[in-house]
Specification:
Elements (H helix, E strand, L loop, with lengths): L32 H9 L4 E5 L15 E6 H5 L6 E5 L15 E5 L9 E6 L2 E10 L2 E5 L8 E2 L6 E11 L4
Antiparallel strand pairs: 1-2, 3-4, 4-9, 5-6, 5-9, 6-7, 7-8
Length: 172
């Protein structure tokens, strides 16, 4: 009689456990366990995206057909390793639709170019502004008439952290 090893008929049949399907063991960082368990318990982050568009002008007939399930991470984050979120403080970018307490999505892999909204460190202080970069002149432009552009002479310590790709804005 042998001992140890796999025994016929032993264990729980595949697909009859808590998740209703086969599972397998994986190694994950201990610091991520709670986050992953929360994700599993909530069933992921996919929410319904309906086929119809909502009219911002005159009302139109509704269509309650679901087009697809939408994961906001897939929509807002194109390069996870290069993306971070930051909360905005202040109102210097309101004409760009960025308000106090909004959360902005920033991608470090996008090249900062003229006209892009960027997160910049100027002499050690972070700011969100529109980048102006022409003929060797660099400025950080606010999107609020109450603020002046930040002129950046050559000796300025400027570091662009990333380009703003999206804004998460709460209403009401």
């Amino acid at each position: 009689m042998s001992s140890g090893g796999k025994r016929a008929g032993a264990g729980r049949p595949y697909g009859t456990g808590r998740y209703g399907e086969p599972t397998r063991a994986i190694r994950i960082p201990a610091s991520k366990i709670e986050e992953i368990l929360y994700f599993i318990q909530k069933g992921g982050c996919r929410l319904p995206l309906y086929q119809c568009a909502v009219a911002a002008g005159f009302p139109s007939p509704g269509d309650d057909e679901i087009d697809q399930m939408l994961d906001l991470n897939e929509l807002l984050v194109k390069r996870p390793a290069a993306t971070f979120f930051v909360r905005v403080s202040g109102d210097s970018m309101i004409k760009a639709g960025i308000h106090h307490n909004d959360i902005i999505v920033v991608d470090r892999s996008i090249k900062p170019e003229d006209g892009k909204i960027v997160i910049a460190a100027v002499n050690g202080e972070l700011t969100v502004k529109r980048l102006y970069q022409k003929k060797g002149v660099i400025k950080l432009l606010p999107e609020n008439d109450a603020y002046r552009p930040i002129e950046l002479p050559e000796e300025s310590d400027l570091h662009i952290w990333g380009v703003v790709t999206s804004v998460i804005h709460h209403v009401g």
